[in-house]
Amino acid sequence: MTKPKVRTRDGAKRRRELCDAAIEVLAEHGSRGLSHERVDRAAGVPVGSTSYYYRSRSALLQGVAARVAEIDTANLQSVLSEPIDTTKPFAHLARLTMLQADGSGLVLNKARHELFLSATRDPALDEISREFMPRIMALAQQAIRQLQPATQDDALLEAQTTAVTTFLTGVFTRFVAGDRTIGDADQLARLFQSIAEAVALDHHRTSASKRTKSGTTPDVS
Predict the structure, then answer these.
(1) Model confidence over 205-218: pLDDT tens digits?
(2) Burial class (CB in 10 A: 0-12, 13-18, 19+), 166
(3) pLDDT in tens, 154-165
(4) Which is more confidently placed, 164 or 83?
(5) Of the candidates 12, 59, 21, 53, the residue with the CA atom closest to the CA atom of residue 40
(6) Where along the chain do its domains lie?
(7) 95 near 108, Cβ under 8 Å?
């Protein structure tokens, strides 16, 4: 007689489902509103399911942060798979940013903001949550190098990257607040480029002024 098949629980799949539901709860209710019971309801699973997989609230937050990082990585790869437009160096960065403006991207954006705030009090959560910005900074610097491939000025590149990513962080926050002044990726790409070019202009002026004060003749060769 054939033995009946025993159904095995797909733990990894269930954790993803619970974390996806927790992302929605974080986006709607904030960090203080996150609870195992709310996640159970949002996921449509029996009461106690979330606490079975994530024994504590801290463990749940860490699981959510890891899931957000996983989705961010997938989004980044999908954007980078698009052809590079040499006439629009910030196109990829702008496209990735605009993914956070509405729909599931906005939900993710709101949840990420809540995780960043919680990470200030949880070192383990901080380690996971802080993976996002280094990726964004690397993408920004890649665009800046594409904008001015001849430069070897690391101080300039660092200043431009700081300015662009600081502005970008503000754009994320405006999306969370419901501000849609920036409406499309092309507009945002132009703003990124304008910021990078303005920083370069200021950097060159400052460098020239320092050389003049020190009596050094600028190298125009």
Answers:
(1) 988 887 787 765 55
(2) exposed
(3) 999 999 999 999
(4) 164
(5) 21
(6) 67-211
(7) no
What secondary structure letter does DSSP report for 184?
A: S
CB neighbours of 201 closer than 8 A, spacing ≥ 6?
none
Contacts of 140-143 with CB under 8 Å at 24 or more apart are: 140/93, 140/164, 140/165, 140/168, 140/192, 142/92, 143/89, 143/90, 143/92, 143/93, 143/192, 143/196
CB 71 within 8 A of CB 49: no
Return the residue matching tokens 């749940």: 60
Give the rounded percent of residues in the chain with a pLDDT score beyond 90. 68
pTM: 0.84
Count CA atoms closer than 13 A to 74's CA, side-chain side.
8
Q: What's at 220, amino acid-wise?
A: V
Specify the residue for token string 């698009």.
82
For residue 44, how many other CB atoms are within 10 A of its CB? 9
Protein fold of 67-211: Tetracycline Repressor; domain 2 (1.10.357)
Computed over its alpha carbons, how large is the radius of gyration of the chain? 22
The pLDDT assigned to 53 comes to: 96
H-helix segments, the chain: 11-29, 36-43, 49-53, 57-80, 91-98, 103-119, 123-129, 132-147, 154-176, 185-214
* Per-residue confidence band for 107, with pLDDT thresholds at 50, 70 and 90: very high
Q: Give first-to-last CA distance, the chain, whole Å.
A: 89
